[in-house]
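Hello forum,

I keep getting stuck at the same step: I have a sequence, I want structure tokens, and every attempt I make locally crashes halfway through. Rather than fight my setup again tonight, could one of you with a working pipeline run this one for me? It's a single chain of 283 residues.
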Amino acid sequence: MNLWEALFLGLVQGLTEFLPISSSAHLRIIGEFLPSAKDPGAAFTAIIQIGTELAVLVYFRREVWAIVKSWTLSWKQGGRPKDRDAQMGWLIIVGSVPIVVLGFLFQDSIETHLRNLYITGAMLIGFALLLGAADAYAGRRAARIRPKELDGIGLGDGLLYGLAQALALIPGVSRSGGTITAGLAMGYSREAAARYSFLLAMPAVFGAGLLELVKALGEETALEAGWGNTIAAGVTAFAVGYVVIIAFLKIVSTYSYRPFVYYRLVLGAVVITLLATHVLYPS
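Reply #2:
Ran it on my machine without issues. Output:
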């Protein structure tokens, strides 16, 4: 992989990470059409995702600081949350447990078998239908009942959010798509579901990225893209991702998720067609 390919993949990562269309699927598919014609790999993907999560950290810096500060104080006081920010900190921890446990147990499959493009195409289509159904339900429900906001989230909902996020270990599901779908199905507003998906992703994505970073430092062959190219891709992902966060939150506060549903359906159908005609190969 050369520098221009890495920068392009960083651009793709920044554009797709926060949209419910699966950034890992896009990196997996687009990698096949680059001059190197190669899957960029789970390590490269996880490391450049640090760039997009840094964009989340910068954008939500006030909320994150309030959560960390209140959670730390609650821990010093025996771990009992005294305010909503401290409770949110505990909910993010609880919601991060499923993806950490499943990621550890199925690490080999995630890095190999689950990157099969037939699985990616099927997940794009399957979760498009789930997102569409959840969005339609949320729209009908909002006409009768006021949607829930994040100040009403409890332990049960936090765990369900976490389980939905864990499904994103399979390329094509989408971390934001899974959590947003769960949030809409539980009655949260479109913006609340999106904002919580951003906050919940930070521990898991930073953790996965740092783990792959440590592995790459210890193994010369673990990062085939090279350090310079990977860092350049991560910086690009950060800059583009920050702009996408601003735009996405404005869009979902006004419009539905339907365009993303259609996009996923079309992309999934294209991937499966290209596989069936041997333009693409599963692995």
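The mean pLDDT is 87. If your local run keeps crashing, start a new thread with the error log.
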